[in-house]
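[audit] Reproducing an earlier prediction to check determinism. Same input, same settings, fresh worker. If the tokens differ from the archived copy the diff job will pick it up downstream; this log only records the rerun itself.
[audit] input (274 residues):
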Amino acid sequence: MARRVAAGVLNSLRQLGAAAARARRRQFACRLPTMRQAARRDGRRIQLLVRSREFFGGRGRAQLPPSACHTMMNLRHLAASAALLLAFVSNSQAQWFARANATHFDPSWQGYSGATGVGIAGGRFFGAKQEHEVSLDISSAKWHADEVDFGVQLEGDETHTPFLLNYRYHVEGTEEFRRIGFYIGPCVGYTRSHVDFDLRGVSSQGSTQLKDTAWEFSWGGNVGFIVRLEHNLELDFGYRYLKISDTSYDFREGSIDVEAAHFNIFYGGVSVRF
């Protein structure tokens, strides 16, 4: 993964040098002015292709933009909705549960490889046969780059963390496979995307920082199966399709838009009911 990230950035830097030598006449997928030119010209922004995704080449701000703060408020509303829903389904037959997962994220952005991560979930089973499940699920995966080439060093991380409200409908297995059950259901929430890269050797000022956090509305679905080991202990294996909306990263000199995408997430874990 790191090599692909570095290769994408360094390839853009090579093209940038060639464009400057040829009086910037060569055309790219997007025009890449130098950092000083970008500072002098309104509407012109440096764009470095990081893992085939565009990140603005400027010094990031420590605080979140207003749009992200608004989304964080929506995230708190999501957590409150989950708490109210869990309280609503409370009855004598309901069971609390906690789950820990290992995950594998496979994003749709071109040039990205898969990344492993971890996740946790908590919620309740309810219904006559405990066939309904409502939970709040949090998982995370990180991509890392650390490469040096063409006199430029790229080092940093990109992390995606979905916060999701899940519903699953469970179906018991046949009599011969009564320990195995299947489930399907939707999920909705927000994904926290954080980028933190340092580029060294691209300007006389030293390090160039690409750093920001964005929150994207996310939705999708889950399908999988469980294997009951004991009355209150089970294994959980499944697949999640997660669509994340387009967003923007804000930096001091401007902002860029990032296209919508999706994750194919495979997971496996252990659930404990109590």
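[audit] rerun output stored. Observation attached for the diff report: The chain has one domain: 61-273.
[audit] end
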